[in-house]
Design goal:
Strand order of the largest sheet: 5-6-8-7-9-10
Radius of gyration: 27 Å
Distance between the termini: 45 Å
Strand content: 15-25%
Shape: flat
Number of strands: 20
Number of helices: 12
Helix content: 25-40%
Structural class: alpha+beta
Length: 409
């Protein structure tokens, strides 16, 4: 351990600077709140460890975050927390990637732990993570999951830490022995578990939880495979493939909407986003690019263009946008999902190079379904390949459908 290594390491090759000298060199107040309790930890440090220790103080001050309690007190108040990756990137706290879209953090007395606290304690991140899991494991004993009328299971701990139990599959991974296990944590206080035959019921429960007041986490379905947790890779023709795609797009859309609030208006305008469905039930994300100001374009399946006069110019495949070589975007330096900043706007000729998904007339019909009836004798507009998004994450043809009996293989 780091504490014992201080007594058995080689002699120091440089004189140790005092805390007062180092604080003065960094322009720090020696009377920082909470600093006096940490001084004994500093006094045990070798010369080469002292400057990084004070640098951690500087970092906390720059982030306007408090100094930690002593490790002697904090070690008993650690618990794990799961947050979306975009939340971890947005906030100035310690985090570690867990799975695609989720990160693991540590709570100390209910508050997220800043990374510099590890340096001030002289404790490794692995020690802190393992201790936090041990505490949650102890809190979770003898608390069974609740079986819902649908047949799936839901956590029932009542302490707001339900989603964090995703880190402890020993409490839920064997609820359906011999069957593939699927889970979801749509909000902080809900953990849902289902076998493959009840995936439609799991979708219904995810929709219900997401519509509540809990803090949103990740609605996409996860799968436990050989003690490894992954985002469920459900591919067509699996009947839940498209609902899973829609759930993942919904999570991304939510992240973009939060990101919108942090965009610098001087850089341009964030594109409006949404999800459309084809007549086959396939969910497709879109972004709307309006002429007139620099556009901060998110990743999406489609891009819809609107002229400065408000006229729809069509929906086009986002991946074909590089065919307009004259429009060169620059990546925006911001937390969370990617955005590209474009200053120009494509001409009609340039739009013709892109793969068209919906003509201007079809685009108008998609976003204005209540448009006026055409004049008598006028040609009817072309049929749109898209349908408006339904409120339910489950396509109509799947509602109430079962997936058959699953064997143990």
């Amino acid at each position: 351990m780091a504490f014992l290594s201080r007594f058995f390491s080689r002699a120091e090759s440089a004189p140790s600077l005092s805390l007062e000298e180092l604080l003065q060199a960094k322009g720090l107040d020696p009377d920082l709140p909470g600093l006096s309790a940490l001084v004994p930890e500093f006094e045990h440090l070798q010369a080469e460890e002292r400057e990084p220790w004070v640098a951690a103080l500087v970092q906390l001050q720059a982030l306007r975050l408090p100094l930690p309690p002593t490790w002697a007190d904090a070690q008993y108040e650690l618990l794990p927390q799961l947050v979306p990756t975009w939340t971890a990137e947005r906030e100035s706290y310690f985090y570690r990637p867990f799975i695609d879209g989720l990160c693991q953090r540590v709570l100390v007395s209910g508050q997220p732990m800043p990374a510099p606290w590890l340096t001030l304690w002289g404790i490794s991140e692995m020690d802190v993570l393992e201790r936090s899991l041990d505490h949650l494991r102890e809190k979770s004993k003898d608390r069974p999951f609740r079986r819902l009328p649908s047949g799936i299971y839901q956590s029932d701990y009542g302490d707001g830490m339900d989603a964090a139990r995703l880190l402890l599959p020993e409490f839920w991974g064997k609820l359906f022995p011999g069957q593939n296990t699927f889970v979801s944590i749509p909000v902080e206080d809900v953990l849902l578990v289902a076998p493959q035959v009840l995936l439609p019921k799991l979708l219904e429960a995810i929709g219900k939880a997401s519509a509540g007041e809990g803090k949103r986490l990740m609605s996409a379905i996860l799968q436990l495979i050989d003690n490894n947790l992954l985002v469920a890779n459900l591919q067509d023709p699996h009947p839940i493939a498209q609902p899973q795609r829609e759930l993942r797009q919904g999570d991304l859309l939510y992240a973009y909407r939060v990101q919108d609030r942090d965009l610098d208006p001087a850089l341009g305008v964030g594109a409006d986003m949404g999800i459309l469905k084809t007549q086959q039930g396939k969910a497709i994300s879109y972004a709307i690019w309006v002429e007139g100001r620099p556009m901060l374009l998110p990743d999406s399946d489609l891009v819809g263009f609107i002229s400065a006069k408000g006229e729809p110019l069509g929906l086009y495949a986002r991946q074909t946008l590089p065919r307009i070589s004259e429009l060169r975007g620059t990546a925006l330096d911001i937390w969370g999902p990617r955005r590209i900043r474009f200053e120009g706007f494509p001409t009609k000729e340039q739009l013709g190079r892109l793969e068209c998904f919906a003509t201007p007339e079809q685009m108008a019909g998609i976003f204005k379904p209540a448009a006026a009836t055409p004049k008598p004798g006028a040609p009817a507009p072309s049929a749109s390949p898209l349908l408006a998004q339904a409120n339910s994450p489950v396509p109509p043809h799947l509602r109430g459908q079962t997936l058959g009996v699953q064997d143990g293989e």
